[in-house]
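STRUCTURE REQUEST FORM
Protein name: RNA 2',3'-cyclic phosphodiesterase
Source organism: Pseudodesulfovibrio hydrargyri
Requested output: structure tokens
Priority: standard
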Amino acid sequence: MPRLFIGIGLPGAYRQSLNPLIKSLSGLTDASVNWSRPDAWHLTLKFLGETDEARIPAVKAALTAVDFTAFTLRAGGAGAFPDARRPKVLWLGLAEGGDQAATLARSIEDALAAVGIPREKKPFRPHLTLGRVRKPAPGDWTPVLDSAAAHKWPSFTVSLFTFWQSALAPEGAIHTPLAEFVAK
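Status: completed
Returned output:
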């Protein structure tokens, strides 16, 4: 079964800035972290997981009905899930566009619920994953998060979202776009 998700692709300026940022962040910790790759970096709006291939046409049709207006997005701030004392995920927040991204995610949830895709149990928290901590190291994560938060990101216009298939591979997930949905 294909592994599916819906998200916002990031512009070249973001992807080009990721490797230098990660290089500096990885020098601040001895923990084992699987860092995000520039070619796969995105903002997830809805993760479907493994989904019966027969459901893909209904998902595409439902997403066609999602009505949204283009909006400005800019990364800013940083944090960790579940928290900075024992992080499992390191992330960038949104300095601009967080409310609009949340509204879009809710619209996607509503559209997909109508075709039998279960709603998320946790509230949507817009973020850009920097890395997943695989083997924590003792120490203070504040320098890592402060350094990530200090990076200046440009604003960009979100004028579409993408329905992706994600294939897991040893070098990381490979994302293949299945369809794009443009702002009205």
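Reviewer notes: The CA atoms of residues 56 and 171 lie 26 Å apart. The mean pLDDT is 95.
Form closed.
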